[in-house]
Structures are given as C-alpha cells and as structure tokens.
Amino acid sequence: MNATDIKSPADIRNLGIDQLSQLATRLREILLEKLAAHGGHCGPNLGFVEPAIALHYVFDTPKDKIVFDVSHQTYVHKMLTGRIEAFADPAHYDDVTGFTNPAESEYDLFEIGHTSTSVSLATGLAKARDLTGGTENVVAVIGDGSLSGGEALEGLDYAAELGTNFIVVINDNQMSIAENHGGIYENLALLRSTNGAAECNIFKAMGFDYIYVPYGNDLESLIDAFRRVKGSTRPVVVHIDTMKGMGFAPAERDKEHFHFTGPFNISDGSSEAPQMQTYVDVFAAHMLKAMQQDRRIVTLTAGTPGAIGFGPAERARAGSQFVDVGIAEEQAVAMSAGLAKAGCSPVFGVCSTFLQRAYDQLSQDVSINRQPATFVTFYGGVYGMNDVTHLGFFDVPMISNIPGILFLEATCRGEYIAMLDWAIRQTDTPVVVRTPSGAIVEREGDFDVDYATAPYELVEAGSGPVAIIAAGDFLPLAQQAAEILRTNGVEAAVYNPRKVCCLDTATLDTLAARKLIITLEDNSIDGGFGQKVAAYMSGKGPEVRVLGLPKAFPDRYNRAQFMAENKLTPQQIANIAMQA
Amino acid sequence: MNATDIKSPADIRNLGIDQLSQLATRLREILLEKLAAHGGHCGPNLGFVEPAIALHYVFDTPKDKIVFDVSHQTYVHKMLTGRIEAFADPAHYDDVTGFTNPAESEYDLFEIGHTSTSVSLATGLAKARDLTGGTENVVAVIGDGSLSGGEALEGLDYAAELGTNFIVVINDNQMSIAENHGGIYENLALLRSTNGAAECNIFKAMGFDYIYVPYGNDLESLIDAFRRVKGSTRPVVVHIDTMKGMGFAPAERDKEHFHFTGPFNISDGSSEAPQMQTYVDVFAAHMLKAMQQDRRIVTLTAGTPGAIGFGPAERARAGSQFVDVGIAEEQAVAMSAGLAKAGCSPVFGVCSTFLQRAYDQLSQDVSINRQPATFVTFYGGVYGMNDVTHLGFFDVPMISNIPGILFLEATCRGEYIAMLDWAIRQTDTPVVVRTPSGAIVEREGDFDVDYATAPYELVEAGSGPVAIIAAGDFLPLAQQAAEILRTNGVEAAVYNPRKVCCLDTATLDTLAARKLIITLEDNSIDGGFGQKVAAYMSGKGPEVRVLGLPKAFPDRYNRAQFMAENKLTPQQIANIAMQA
Lengths: 580, 580
What we know:
2 copies of one chain form a homodimer. The first copy, chain A, is of the alpha/beta class. Chain A is built from 23 helices and 18 strands. In chain A, helix 3 crosses helix 10, helix 14 runs parallel beside helix 16 and helix 19 packs across helix 23. The radius of gyration of chain A is 26 Å and the shape is globular. The N and C termini of chain A lie far apart (67 Å).
C-alpha cells in the first residue's frame, strides 16, 4: 500500500511482514525528509519507526491504550493514526505538535512533554479498567533516559502491585538526551549482554515479568514479543534494544547532537553554524572559568547538559566538577543541598520548566536548611520554549514565594555574570538566577552590589507621573516604552528590580507621589512580583498596573502576537502610561 | 556507665558488648517513658535503638556523616549526641524537636521531615568529599517505607555512579506508616527470606554492593556489619531487618497505631478515646458513602491513610476503591490523572505539605490535560502541623497559580461536603478542596452552587466602609471581627470567597465605594489570594489590606502567639478596620 494512504492502524493490520518492512522504510524516508526540512526530535523518532508500527500492528488501538513517555518519539505513531499528511506534505508540517495531543487524535491519550510520567499515568488507566470491568491492554512506552526520573520509578514500583494486565515497553537506546547516568544503566547493559537472562534484573526486582528483545528495530522480533504479552494478566516489561537515529548515519553517529535539531542537510546531516552568541554560551564559558579558579564550584545538570551550554567539549574540560545526574531533578536539587552543606558551591543549571519537578526539594532540602546552592534557570518567560508542556511562565510564581530563596533576574550580560558570581559566593542563602531568554543585552550599570540588600536599580530617571519597574528580559520593553513617552512629552522613571521575590519598600515609598506604577514581568503575573507591589502600594497613592504573561497554558504561540495580546508592546505600555 | 552521663558518642566507644547491651535497654526505657508521657514517633524510634548505638559506636561521628531519612527515628541518636536530658528529664522534653536539627547539634546535618531525601542529600556530601580530598564515611539511613519515594530512587540510582565510599543503611521494618506498597517490597521480602542471597536484588541492580543483617536489633550483628563497610571504597547497601516498636508489646502488635501517638498508658499502650469529630472523619465518612454509591469513585493516599481518616476498618470497607500507592506523591497525582482520563473520579487525600512533592504532576499530567481529578488537602494553614518541615502555609501560593486548577476552601461542614461532591462530579476541571484544619463549623449557607462560577458568598451584610473577604478556616475570624466592629458602631460586610485561585470581579466591583477591603487567608500571603485582590482593586478606590500568614518557615510556633504576631486576632482585625 501507499504509505500516504494510511488512515488508521486498521489499514496496516492485514499486511504481511514484507509489506510492513517496506512501510517502515517508506515512513522513515518521509520522517527524515520532514526532519531535515523542519527540524524536530530526530534520533528518538528514527529509532522508533519499527516499534511504533509493531505496537499498532499487534495491539487493538485505540481500544488498547498506549501511553508514550515524554512523547517526542511519536512521529511515526502520528503517521499511523490519521496524520500522515502532516509529515508527507510540507504545507501541513505544522498541523501537528511535536508531542502526543488528544486534541489531534483519540490515539493520543495525554499531552506530555516532561519525561518519566507514562507509567504512572498508565497505572490510572489500568486501575480504572479493573474497577469497571474493561478488558483492554494498557501499555506504557518509556525510554531508558526517562527511567532515572523519580516518577517513573515510583510508577514502576506501584504498577507491579496492580497484579493485572500492564505492559511496559522499555525502549532502550542506550542514551538519554546525552549519555545515560545512574546505576540502573549498568543493569540494562548487563541485561543486554546476557540476552535478558541475568537474574539480577531491576524490573523483576520491582515485581514485573520480563521479556528481552535484542533486535528492537526488527519488526518480526517486536511483533512476536508484543503478541506474547498482549492479553497478559500480569505486569510485564518488554525490554527492546533499539538504535537512536536508526537509518540516518549522521544521527546514528552523533546521537547527542541529533536528539533534537533544527533543519539540516539531508545528504550529510550538516547544518548552519550556530548563530550569534546566547546567554547559554555566556553561562557555560563563565562557569568553566569559575570552576577552573575554584575546585569547590560544581555545575550540575539533570540530563540536559547541552541546554545549559555543556556539550561534550565543555564537559570534558569541567571534568569531575561537572555532574550530570540524569533526568532526575529532585536528585539534582537535593544533591546541591548536600554539596553546599559540605562547603562546595553547587550551580544547578536547569530549564525553567523542568525545575517544576523539584519544588519540595527547593523548599525543604535547600531553603529550610539555608543551603547556599545556586539554581540557574534557562528558557524562562515568553522568549523561552513555547510548547505548552515546556512553558517557562511559572518559575517566578512557583519559586519566588518560597521563603528564604532569593530570586534574581538578570537584565544584561554584565548583570548576569555579576549575579552568578554573587550567588556562588553566598554562604547561607540559596539563590535562583534567571537567565534572560532574549538576545544578549549589553549596558552599563552598577552590577557589583550585594543582591540581598540592593535597592531597585534606577535605569532611567524621569520625574513624570509614571514609573515602570521591569524585570529581566522585559527591561528593554520598559526602556522602549519610556522612549515613546518621552517623544510624547511624558517623563517616566524605569527601574530594574533585580530580584522578584521581595520588595524594595524604600524605593517604592519614594514613588508614592506618582500617579501610576507599571510593573512588567516575564512570567505568569498571578503570584508574581507585580501583585506584591500592588498590595504594598495599596492606599499609598499610585495606581499599580500589573503587566506580564497570563495565567494560561498557550501552545506554540506566536511571540509577537502573544505579546500584543497581553498589552506588552512598547507602544501599548506607553499608551497605558499616557492614560494615567 | 550511667546512660544519662553520655555527652557524646565518644563516651560509648570504649564499652564492651555487654555494656552496650545494658545501655540499649536503659535508653529504650527512657525513650518509652518519654513517649508515653509526651507522645511522638513511637515505633520508628523503639525499633532503632540498637542501630543508632551501633552507628555511633562504629563510625567516627561527627567526622563521619550520617544523614537520617525523614529523621523521625533519631531520638536515640539525639540521646547519644549530647541531648539525653531532653529525653530523661521531663522538664526538658521540649528542648529538642522531633527531627534532626543542625541548630541543636553538629551531629544533625539537615532539618528533614519529608521522606526519601537522605540518599540524594548524602550524594552531595560524598561528592564534596571526593572533590576536596576528604576521607570521611558518608552514611544515609533510610527506612523501607521511604524507598517508594521517587527522590530516594533517583538518589540510589545516581549514588552508584559516585563509585566511592557511600553507605546506605536500609532500615527494613516491613512497614511504611501503614503497610508497605509496591513491588520493591516483594524484593525486600525475597532478600529477607534468602538471608540476602537472592540474585534478584534491587540494590545490586542499581549498582550497589550489598550486605544483609538478619537481626537488625542485635548489636553484635550490626557492629560487625558496620565495621565491614566502614571505609568501603564503593557504594554499599547494608540491609538490616529491624522490628518497628521493638521492646514495647503494644507497639510491636499495632505498628500502624504506634507509628506516631499522643501520650499513652505505659502499662498497656491504651490512650484516651479520640476527642471530638474532625473534618478528617467527615471526609472519610463521606468518601465511604460516595464510593459505595458509585464504583468509579476512587480514594487515593500516598502512604498516609490514617491522616485522611482511612484506618484499617475504613480501608477494608472501601476495598479496591481505596488505593495506597505508598509514599509516592508523584505517582498518586499522575495515577489520578490516568484514572480521570479513563472515566473514574479519583480523590487524592493528602497532607498539604506533602502535595508539594507533586507540583509538576499537578501542572502537566493534571492541569494541561484538563483531567477532572480531585485533590483534598489536609492540615493546611495555621491550625495544621507546626513543625517547620510540615507547615501547610504554601499550598495556596504553590497550586492556586497553576492555570486551570480550581482551588476551593471550605468554611464549614456543609460547604465542605458540597465542595467534595461538586468536585467529584466535574468532567474536565481539576479541583483542589482544602479541608479546614480548625474545629468543625456548622452554619447555614448556599452551598449547592456551581463552584466554577459561583460569586463570593455574602455571609454577613454590612453597608459600612469595610468589607472583609475571609477564606476557609479564617471566616470565623472575620465574623468575630465584624461583631466587634458592630459593637463599635461600624458595619462590615463579610464574604466567603469560596475559591482562592481567581477573583469574583463582579462582586469586587460592587465594593468600589468602600474605604477598605481586608482579605484574610490562612496561608502565606505572598502569591496568595489577597495580593490578587489588591492588584485588581488598584486605582478603583478602596485600600486593600492583605492579612494572613507570613512568608516564613517558623518551627513549632504557638498558635495563639503566632496569630497575634501576624495581626490575626479578631480585635486586631477590627482595629485595622476602624482605622479606615
């Protein structure tokens, strides 16, 4: 059959193995063409062509339920479930998201982008089935990289107790985003090397039956294995050995680079040289220098070293002062507390959205214990990642309301470096430094300050009726608005608050005679900085207008449009000010 | 030697085994006497007398570092480290907290009360040691009940990678707070039944060396085992089989009841019959009735069934509709999402402080996926638990700023039941219902409403210059303040906001002519409800005074004093109103 004619998995269930094989080849071609032209999760999908086909071939989807962990390996699953046009036709490339999405298809059960949740979610499906007398298979598909996450381990531990049909496919490609970390991977290696026969088996130890599939990109092997477990009345793990990047030599070779890429040259995998420098580069370069000067400084990542500027070369330079705990944010935060307790200066670099996985560790292990660990967040705010599961809108409301943690937001390169250095020097204060997500800003300013006590920085003096307090990435917006106001004869003062966890009441008191204070923050405003200003200034005179990102989960928003919708263009800000 | 003469572990290191044995007997007597008179964590400490002695006997504390998981098993550790007076002398019983506390002793490394963090914290200590050339032993002591927590599993997985001295003592007493849950416990049972010889070994699978101690309350066995691993150059698990409640027959018999108790009769373990009914009882009774009427309703706990009113009898009645996932809050929240997706109505009852461990699951698995799961929090606010690690001040700032989750606060029995029923009926809205922590309030009101759209409830009309909006447990405070105001000739309106995640702007607009709006909330005010009101009302007329709990981590506060310090007595509230 023609691959592009596939409307649903039913269309492939009557095919013979040769036809399935041809289908796999064709789907991989289509996949690779889209990846090269459009970018996306490359290695995870190339390695999951055959398993996706075999799953839909064997199981009666959508009656049987498949939950994909992190769900960035589901491109072929999408092709098989009515969405092949979004891969085969460039005009429709953006019709689908990069993750499972129930709004697109009944075959997609959850909208997921954070790892390690599939098993837990699937236990709920299985328990509901058992309570209501259902008979469907429940399948969780989870990669080895996601296995280090606490939620996955909690889920695996609990799942065995269900005692009924529960199938976990361990997609073992011997990689996380970068290399795997943790003792479990030694056990996976042992299982691979013994063709699954080793008695010491993490899955059996957690109560699962176990099947090993040495050729996890071989359709016959997969179909055979899935048929064996279909209808199982016990929790069972199917451990499949797959190759990340399968079928595209550059991706097979450089698995870390091809985990996720922008567009590339399909002939050799090459791509444009990196564009201009970003704050990620600034961070990595600065940490490497700092670590060289002081052996007690440790940079940590939880499975995303590239996202914080530590590619293989930087990791090699940092040596034992760089720690990748694997995808395990709770471990990273608590380990940071332990490092700090013992006199080291830990700096955990983390995507804003993933730090959400460690609230309790920030609260108890770090803050209650007053451990001077530093947490540097990336991709926060409107300029960060814009998939709904990866939004960086919520780090400020989540963390800045935990007592005892200083939450700093840098506005330019000089301040960013000063904040990093200051945070590292602290002896009893945990600090978050939010990395700007926009283009690097260069400006002069007084950055060599004690950020615990520093007042708001007056960036632009202006004695008119308006003052704008703008944090982090949004300082330039305030400056542009002030410029518009000036051309309209209105003077506005512009302040950089430096930290958003608490108020500089002395400076705020000096603003009592103004008519309007505008706060600008690059995060969901509910629970944020502006509402604190509004509460403090209530009854003192000025009106406070709180501007920032909405309390919402938008998906793949257009940045310019999103800013305008939220009254965040310089002109809109100036208009609000002029109404004062 | 006389037990009460022990000033530090050095005092016991020259004792012979017979003397250590006598010491254990004497320390257990002292412990039991205090427990009977004072209450506290009974079973965990009675079962850890010998291990605590053996640890300090073998290891060179405080140079060697011991991190106790959850740390409620450290009473004997405290006795051995200079604090025996706080156990032997009733006048000093309250000199120590119930957990490790660095402010008390250099032998206490962290202030901990949530489970499953010890291994991760200890990895930081070990890494710091390795970077700085230290030689001390690093020991994490963790109970089997804590092993189901994701952070513990992340820590164990990562620890093996350290490849250096790292000793984990698994204190296996075959119990969590209630019975254990999860597949790992089958493996622990296998290890016990094979005297540690089974090849299938969760710890070996995670990369640890392994030693089994069948008599974990036998000093000689323990000392021998600890000596074998002292100075180990590899990560190693020492699995000790102990008896929870050891040496006190009632506690050995009823391990769940004696996990934590108030004072009891030392002769037979009996204690006063429970006092008056609480909201916990209301919850359990209501859920039992609801589950009986609808098989799709499922009540979940994460290892604390008793804390939500589900003792052994209630669990038996609920049967398969009650799920205890073990101490694994991430699993509980994500499983709830799965249950909801499959058409069930999950209700996860959880201590406010422990829900902190599942922020990301609430955000992604539940809210982004619009799963109609219900989360019922307990022990929130000032009337909840008052140990610093167990404060319920932060649920509102943490959760109410996540988009899409309705956060309801009940003010009385009728409203609480109505909110539970309404939440269970939702089909696409996740709901938090905060259980009041104070005494049960009975009052009339319009509780049969659509809580998604219901306006603020006008509890007391009053056309004067003041309106008070008071959430949850604090509604009675507002009513008492209004009564004082009335006697002073000031009429105040009192509103119950019902939900604290968003505003009833229509009602707020009707208050524009008032001089003062006071918001009262039983949570840390930063990031809370009042600041949202203040931001909305800014420029509209009334001053907004935001009253509630401070952004702070107080430890074992006195409630009356704490309320007064935060201007939360009815008289103080009335005074603020009268200044308007």
